[in-house]
Amino acid sequence: ENVASIFNNLCKGSSASSREYRMYLAQLGCIEKLFQLLERSLNGHITAKLRFHCAQCLQYISIEEDLRTRVGAKSHISIILQVIYNINNGHSVKGELFGILMNLAANETNAKRILNEDGLHLIKQSLNCRPSEDISIGSYACGLVANIAAVQSLKMKVCRAGILTQLHKICKTQEDLLLLVNAVTAIKNVVHESSACAKMCAKTGGVAA
Fold first, then answer.
1. What residues contact residue 21 under an 8 Å CB cut-off, 6+ apart?
2. What are phi and psi of 33, to 5 degrees?
3. What is the reported pTM?
4. Residue-wise pLDDT tens digits, 22-60
5. In angstroms, what is the C-alpha Rg of the chain?
6. What is the distance between the alpha carbons of residues 4 and 10, in angstroms, rounded to a whole number?
7. CA-CA distances (angstroms) from residue 98 to 123, 204, 209?
8. How far, in Å, CA of 21 to CA of 147, rounded?
9. CB count, 10 Å around CB of 143?
10. How far apart are CA 200 and CA 191, in angstroms?
11. Vertex 110 angle, CA 109 and 112, to 5°
């Protein structure tokens, strides 16, 4: 736990030194080791605190565009989704995991992998967040939808999954600024340059939201 916490402190932030640490730790094989630990968490073999540190560190590392291909390997995305599936909405680690996916989905190949692994189903579940729950879960999930919907070929899949209705509900019921910004951005990306998606958005209450 202490080592993972140190990794987090080295990787977080936007300074040049933080970026150097992220790249250096990746070169040392840190990405693969962190995913091995996350996979072990599925069987309860690591503590919740260590699981959180692993997820948070991977979120920081996945900020780097040059590392998203390694972090977003098919097996890695599958592990992230499995861990999310096994965690209740109220746990903050779930927000960190969605933060990783949000960063990864800025890459088109990763966005498609997330959908191929049935990621939309878990996104729908997590968008049903209540104000009393960790707001980062809904915020990162909306950011994930925004990045997925930036891919033209994936817009209609987002619409058909019924996610627009949830985004509209968030706009009408939530007050957190970052959550609202991400929800509005997601809606904007879904309808951008897609008349079919724009029509679906209007039919599901987009104007009212």
1. 10, 11
2. -65, -40
3. 0.92
4. 999 999 999 999 999 999 999 988 899 999 999 999 999
5. 17
6. 10
7. 9, 25, 24
8. 26
9. 25
10. 9
11. 70
